[in-house]
Amino acid sequence: MKIRINNKETDVQAKSLLDLAKELSLPERGVAVAVNNRMIPRTDWQQTTLKDDDNIVIIKAVCGG
């Protein structure tokens, strides 16, 4: 299925947001994800299904100064 991740068209096998996180090897902590401009709490990732043309924004926290 084709989705957009941070404005880049990407072909993925994931069916849910949790599957996508695993497919992209996202870290367990310090990550926020929005699907079609709606923030999804990590507790809802497993039941959040993905569809063709979904727009995903992934924000990773970084340390530094």
Helix-strand blueprint:
Blueprint: E1 2-5, E2 8-11, H1 17-23, E3 31-35, E4 38-40, E5 55-60
Parallel strand pairs: 1-5
Antiparallel strand pairs: 1-2, 3-4, 3-5
What structural keywords apply?
65 residues; mainly beta; five-stranded mixed beta sheet; 5 strands
Strand order of the largest sheet: 2-1-5-3-4
Q: Which runs of at least 5 residues are low in confidence (pLDDT < 50)?
A: none
**How much is the average pLDDT?**
95
Report how far the terminal alpha carbons are from each other.
38 Å
Strand content: 25-35%
Helix content: 10-25%
Backbone CA Rg: 11 Å
* Total E-strand runs: 5
Overall, the morphology is globular
What is the helix/strand order?
A: EEHEEE
Number of discrete helical segments: 1
Main β-sheet description: 5 strands, mixed
Structural class: mainly beta
A few lines on this structure:
By secondary structure, this protein is mainly beta. The chain has one helix at 17-23; strands at 2-5, 8-11, 31-35, 38-40, 55-60. A hairpin with a 2-residue loop joins strand 1 and strand 2 (8-11).
Explain this structure to me?
- With about 60 residues, the protein is mainly β.
- It has one helix at about 15-25; strands at about 1-5, 10, 30-35, 40, 55-60.
- A 5-stranded mixed sheet has the order 2-1-5-3-4, with no helix packed on it.
- A hairpin with a 2-residue loop joins strand 1 and strand 2 (about 10).
- It is globular, with a radius of gyration of 11 Å.
- The relative contact order is 0.31.
